[in-house]
Amino acid sequence: MEPRAGVSKQDIREQIWDYMEARNLADFPRPVHHRIPNFKGASRAAEHFPRLQAFKMARTIKVNPDAPQKNARFFVLNSKKTLLVPTPRLRTGLFNKITPPPGATKDILRKCATSQGVRNYSTPVGLDSRVLVDLVVVGSVAVSEKGWRIGKGEGYADLEYAMMVSMGAVSQGTPVVTIVHDCQVVDIPETLLEDHDLTVDYILTPTRVITTGCERPKPTGIVWSKISCEMMGKMPVLRSLRCREEQAGKDVTLRDTHQGLPRARAALSTVRSPRELPSLESGSWQGDDVPSSTVYIGNLPRDARVSELKRALSARGAAPSRLTWQGPQRGAFLHYRDPAEAWQAISRLQGFCLGANTVRVALARHQGASGLAGGRTGEPHPDP
Fold this sequence. Notes:
elongated; Alpha-Beta Plaits; RNA binding; 384 residues; Rossmann fold
């Protein structure tokens, strides 16, 4: 099966998903659309895996958690190698190490290789573990004999690899393997590839082992300009890596950072009173007539100093015109010249870390003087 001319990545995905469904080439779960397909013959394709020289030499192997790679995970465990599996959608970390019970039989090892086994027999691997990954297995929707790869469109495999690069777990020489049905091997125009796209070195199908000889460089780390604030909010491990790279002096500007000002102006054009301004309700400001140009930040380290915070804010281009310190509450109010500047600061401070803490950032909430008993109009108060 060959893709049509002038296609996009999504066109190729849809073509393969439709083909596999129409010809009943997939196993549960179905339909295969929007998934890494669990294809019939996946077990047979995985039998090539332990015969690869790269497998024989590897001690630590990362395998994606998708169903068609279940047998690949079993072969890693059965060969007494270290198996690492990414956490689902990277919500709780990057890796889990699968540790079978002592004296595990092959039947138990097969259970450990399932999604349920991954949950029951895994322990998290932290960023400070200094793990070195010798071989990487990823799922694919489509792949070419040249090593070009297309995933299901969510970017997790590319991001996982970039994160491994950032933490020093892999290098350009670390082999990457994918396991697919023969119909998933198609021509992919190189023009569809981007710098953050992961390529593969070996393709295993039920009938073939393809050594791609791919010379296209693999991702050299996280491309922060491709990462959204929403992704940062969902992935604590990504926030931690961003803090490390920021402290190392790297550019960690997020994809939507520069959209903060236009977004703020658009929001302001429809707001008629301070109470209508968007708010994350992390802090509150008393006084009806105070403009919404104040940002609240919380979860500061207990030993944080004002001078340290001011330096960090300046480094991110978010220095306020005035700062109100709320040390006992581990927070501070940042006062900007106008609401648009405040929203720009919020955008720039997404994923902001001070010390080991990820700082909470939000527009200060507006309340009238009667909203908080005992407060003086015009003084900031963090929410309880």
